[in-house]
Each structure stands twice: as C-alpha cells, then as structure tokens.
Write a structure and sequence with these properties.
The chain is α+β, with helices and mostly antiparallel strands. It has 2 domains: 41 residues; 153 residues, Jelly Rolls, CATH 2.60.120. Strands 1, 3, 7, 9 and 10 form a 5-stranded antiparallel sheet that branches. It has a 5-stranded antiparallel sheet with strand order 5-2-8-4-6. Helix 1 runs antiparallel to helix 3. The relative contact order is 0.32.
C-alpha cells in the first residue's frame, strides 16, 4: 500500500512540474526592414518581457525574400546581439562589402539568393536558432529583457516581412497545485481504506 502511495506521489510530482508552451511573435517596424536596402546595415532590438520563461525554440523567418539581381557578392549577414538599441536602427554603410557588424554578437549565418531577380520569385527563409545550437546564448542574451539581431545586406533584398517566433515553457502553478491536492486526497482515501 505504501509503495502505491509513494508511486502515485512521484507520478504527480513528475507530471505536476510540466509546463505549457507559449508562442510569441515579433516583427520590426516596418515589417520588411525597408526591403533591406544594400546602402544600410540594421540592428533590431527586441524588448523581452518574459524573463521568467525559458526559450526552447526560436525561428527567424524572411517571407518572400529575393535579391534585385544576380551578383557574386550578394550576401545577407546575420548576428544575434545581446544589447542592441530597442526597435529598428539603420546604419549607413555605402554598400560596403562584408559584415558591418563582424565581431559583434554571435553569428547566426548568411544567406544568398541563388537566382536573383527584381521581380522574384522570392522564397521563405527560416533560421532555426535551436538547430543552429544558439538557444543557450539566446536565453543568456534575453535574461536582462533585451536582445536582438544585426543584419547587413550586401545587396538589396526585397521581402514581404521579417518575423521572429519564440517558443517558451511556462510553468502552470494551478495545475501543480491541483495535482498535488489530488495526490493528497488519494493518499488520505487509501489510508482510510486500510
């Protein structure tokens, strides 16, 4: 009998500390970041109001992105930043080749349009920060309530919008309490029966 009560309690504890997923979406203003003009480099600072939650997934997506023409040096550079200015900031780089933000933050990756055409077609490109092994760094950067990205397009990248999707685990205190009360009730019932 005691073994069953202990087993039930352990099950309640195991399931009681589960969490539900929360999904947050962030978009810069303007959503297409001025079509990522090659004359500029950009930072996008995100105010993170969920510092008590652990980030378990993050996806940076560019919708319908395409270069304006095929070029050999058309590269979009991406880095994750710890403390950028909040919101979207432009820096004039006069089409300088290379990453304007080299050595700052953590590299996320690069992208080049394999076709390059003013009229498209564009593609949807997603950087999965989990697959890239960057979630622990992202959690560290987000701990103080502000993190973000730098983007340096070495060509003009038309797009229909940039979006960051963040998935976190949110503890459910009410569920933990109910499961705990249920375990206590079950233990009392079994004690009374024996």
């Amino acid at each position: 009998m005691k073994k069953k009560i202990i087993l039930a309690t352990l099950c309640v504890l195991a399931f009681g500390f589960t969490a539900k997923a929360a999904v947050y979406e962030y978009m810069p203003t303007p959503g297409d970041m001025y079509d990522l003009d090659h004359d500029f480099a950009y930072t996008w600072g995100i105010d993170w109001n969920h510092t008590d939650e652990v980030i378990h997934g993050a996806f940076l997506t560019f919708t319908n992105i395409h270069d304006w023409r095929p070029e050999s040096d058309d590269i979009l550079y991406l880095n994750m930043l710890d403390n950028p200015a909040s919101g979207l900031t432009q820096y004039y780089d006069n089409e300088e080749v290379g990453d304007y933000f080299a050595g700052q933050g953590t590299p996320v990756g690069t992208w080049s349009d394999p076709a390059g055409s003013f009229y498209g077609p564009g593609v949807d490109v997603t950087f999965n920060l989990g697959s890239l092994g960057l979630l622990s760094t992202l959690n560290s950067y987000a701990a103080d309530g502000l993190f973000g990205f730098s983007l340096d397009p070495d060509c003009h990248y038309f797009n229909d919008g940039v979006k960051l999707t963040v998935v976190t685990d949110v503890p459910e205190p009410a569920s933990i309490m109910l499961l705990g009360l249920g375990a206590l009730g079950m233990a009392a019932y079994r004690r009374k029966r024996s």
